Amino acid sequence: MLMAVAALGCLAIAGCSGSPAGSASSENVSQASTLSSASSSASAVSSSQASSESSSEQNTAPSLLTSASMEDGPNSVGNVNDGDLGTYWAANGQGQWLQFQVNPAKPLGGISIAWHKGNEREAYYEVLASDNGQDWYTVVARTESSGGLSQTDVKFHTQIDMPFIRVVGYGNSGGSSWNSITEASLLFCDDYACAPKCDAYPACISDNAPATSSMSSSTNASTSSVASSAAPVNPNAAYPVEVVPDIARWKITLPVDSNGNDSSGGSSKDDINHNADEIKDEQLEMLLREPHFFVENGEIVFNAHCAGATTSGSSYPRSELRQRVGGGDNYWSVDDLQYISVDLRVTETPVHKPEISVVQIHGPEDEPLRVQYSANSPGGIWYIWNETNKVYLDPSKDNFEYKLGQRLRVDVTVEGGRIYLYLKNLDNGQTYANDWESSDSTGFFKVGAYTQSSIYLQSIKGDDAQNEPADAAGEVRVSRIHLFETYEGETTGVRPGESNNTETPAQETGADIPSVITNGTLFDLEGGAQNLSPLINNKTLQFLPLVAQHTTSGGNGLRHEYKIKSSERVDFFATYEKFKATVKVEMSNGGKTIISQIHGGVDVTTLLKVFVADTNESGFEDSQASNGIFDVYARIQVSSDEDKMALGTIRSGESFDLEVINNHGLVTITAFGKTFERNSVDDGLAYFKFGNYLQSQNPNGSVKCGTPGDTQSMLDCYAQFGIRNAIVTMTDVSYVRM
């Protein structure tokens, strides 16, 4: 996902005229990508839309920069002004926004919006305006769309002449948190019957009540906090179960006992109340215990004050979920597949020891993992692994930094006795990954606010420590938890890489995956153990070799891919076949994978390979190892040699279209607008493969490491070179053979 993605173009009720401000009227604005600023908390990637119109009129429509808090895949911000009701912008989550920046500001009186699936459901939203992109006024209070697929005018109660207009979405009546707009345009007063400007403008815009949709910093004497980034509560997210549908798989520990008492009124750690209340299973679904556990703006708020009650084994308070493994207080095995993915924000910390734990693995003896935020840590995040080992992330070394109030994704995978940690700052896009062998054989997950300080901190830590004020607290806001567990051979939850949301872009757009690929008649699956099917939904395939952990006796890495069944293989020159897909690669720097190949069956090992690689192999567009730029290239066997073809470059998370054709030995590769043709050599019983074949090698020099057939040696090799993430997602997939 991209944060604050923007498209530059002309937009008005009657279309575009004139040219962007500051340019000659006859100047062509070509398509390009630049980095600019869209808000105080996010960088914006903007692409210029072509406009070659010229005009001598003085009264022209202003240029607009259309941006968004995020976009999802092909459902990008540029779709809202392409004139096509079949395309749309989409973003998942409460408070996601679509923004127009008018340059220069011009009087306007409304906005016209067409909502995706508007004939099936109501969209919940509000409209805000701002002079500076920081301080916001509510122009249209939270409302719902009126139905239908075409654009509907929403008239403002007052004329507005502010440059920033923002539509903030709060999900829809279909029960999901998706916000999807097909078309949107501003209604300027030149062509629209605007209401007169209200008295006492601009305070009268929202009755002297500026909106709080923009994140702003605030502090007081006893706590460091960040205001919520979302505006009014969405009725669809009033209770915990509406944020985390399977919250009954957890129990909550609160910083008060069952009578509501905390630990205040004492003089030392001996006076701590160790009878923290616990509430579990279905009782959690509708539980609201302000200020410690409640729902606000589509997030579950976990707040643990420093005077809180604690559990019997701790000196610190918590408002924290504990996984109920197998429906009870059990432990899963680290040898089985366990997975959790959490989207959260740390919004408050204590004063003197500003630390808070957000995600843990707890074992019977040790803590195999604890992820914490500390205002005193260089990168904000640090973590403990195997109880005693501490890693403080440093922006200068780890290229990762997290600040109070930003959105953080914490992904933890446990399998084969190892723990894999993946962090992503969802606001700046930075990522970090590491893995290690677990010191415990069993464990369970914990999520929430485990405040690492106390009003009795001096008694706990010694004379050098300072006791916290009674109202100091730690607070974490969680917007998503994806939990998968394996316990005593039974699995619960949605597996890693799969979505339980019924409205992903891949489900709404693109072609269905051909059944001939997945039904076993033509293709076999390599790496399908533990029911790890690449088929996420009927339009999406996702290949996860680090989860599948499948290797072959002659292979150079782990693979998760489809291949033509042995019974269906034919001579290369006797075959016409065509494969097409949109390919998205998410991979650690230094990674290398094969996404498509034609494998020989008799005389030649491989006739064709299509690689995505961040290595220093020469001859391609980048050819620099581990710099985050992945060369996409092909190798085709021609006579006794291989021809190498540089197709293009991508970064992790980006997509490209690929087409591979074998026309009876004439191989054609098309990607990035380039097409290469080569006559390859014949081979009997050749077969087509595609997916994610993660290569086990040093990105510098391409020296192979790991032992063929030995999964652990492959994993050790990846760990040595920092390859901890390798996901290939394919949509719009087609395959024909004649």
Structure description:
The chain is mostly beta strands and 738 residues long. The chain has 3 domains: 2-211, Jelly Rolls (Sandwich), CATH 2.60.120.260; 218-225 and 246-493, Jelly Rolls, CATH 2.60.120; 505-737, Jelly Rolls, CATH 2.60.120. The chain has 6 helices and 48 strands. The strands form 7 sheets. Strands 16, 17, 20, 21, 24, 29, 30, 31, 33 and 34 form a 10-stranded antiparallel sheet that branches. Strands 3-4-2-5-8-13-10-11-15 form a 9-stranded mixed sheet, with no helix packed on it. Strands 18, 19, 22, 23, 25, 26, 27, 28 and 32 form a 9-stranded antiparallel sheet that branches. The longest helix has 10 residues, at 711-720. The chain is globular and about 85 Å long. 49% of the residues are buried. Mean pLDDT is 82; it is low at 6-61, 207-235 and 497-508. Residues 42-189 form the F5/8 type C domain. It comes from Marinagarivorans cellulosilyticus. Residues 42-81, 212-232, 491-512 are annotated as: Disordered.
What's a quick, concise take on this entry?
It comes from Marinagarivorans cellulosilyticus. Helix content is 4%, strand content 44%.
Beta-strand share of residues:
35-45%
What is the rounded distance between the termini? 38 Å
- Structural class call reads mainly beta
Cα shape: globular
Q: Any idea of the CATH topology of the largest domain?
A: Jelly Rolls
- Mean pLDDT over the full residue set: 82
How many domain units?
3
**Cα gyration radius (Å):** 28 Å
Number of helices: 6
What is the name of the CATH architecture of the largest domain?
Sandwich
Quaternary organisation of the protein chains:
single chain
What top-tier CATH class of the largest domain fits best? Mainly Beta
Helix percentage: under 10%
Strand tally: 48
- Main beta sheet, described? 10 strands, antiparallel
Q: Which consecutive residue ranges, at least 5 long each, have pLDDT under 50?
A: 6-61, 207-235, 497-508
